[in-house]
Amino acid sequence: MQEQGSQLFKEIGQDLAQALQNGRGFSQTIGTYPFFKKELSLIIEYGEVKSKLGSELEIYAEKTWEAFFTRVNRTMNLVQPLVFIFVALIIVLLYAAMLMPMYQNMEVNF
């Protein structure tokens, strides 16, 4: 898995170097990749114009990181109760499976 990730970075780097040598802009080249968000190319373009690309990318990284963990927390808040309900059902069914033979052997006389 590690080699695949580094191969991807290597290919992106080669494509970026080739595009920059051909005169294409950095933000335009990043915008052609479908796995980058469209706003990344806008952030890069804005950072290049303002000559503050590094700080703009840091701010973007922080916002993206916060959004990612917000989605993770929201998903966990949905999944966690479902897991608890599933575990509770398994426990109840196990108790029922253990107690059913005892209840069947008991005779009730009225």
Describe this structure in words.
This protein is mainly alpha-helical and 110 residues long. The chain has a domain at 2-75. The chain has four helices and no strands. The chain has helices at residues 2-21, 26-31, 38-50, 53-105. Helix 3 (38-50) runs antiparallel to helix 4 (53-105). The longest helix is centred in the last third of the chain and has 53 residues, at 53-105. The radius of gyration is 28 Å and the shape is rod-shaped.
Features:
110 residues, mainly alpha, 84% helix
Structural class from helices and strands?
Answer: mainly alpha
Instruction: Please trace the helix and strand order, writing H or E for each element.
Output: HHHH
Poorly predicted segments: none
- Overall pLDDT confidence: 89
Shape: rod-shaped
What composes the largest sheet?
Answer: none
Helix content: over 70%
Number-wise, the strands total: 0
| Termini Cα gap | 70 Å
Q: Which radius of gyration do the C-alpha atoms yield?
A: 28 Å
In terms of DSSP E residues, the strand content is under 5%
Helical region count?
4
Give me the secondary-structure topology.
Blueprint: H1 2-21, H2 26-31, H3 38-50, H4 53-105
Helix pairs in contact: 3-4
Domain Type II secretion system protein GspF: 3-101
Protein name: Type IV pilin biogenesis protein
Keywords: Cell membrane, Membrane, Transmembrane, Transmembrane helix
At a glance:
This protein is mainly alpha-helical and 110 residues long.
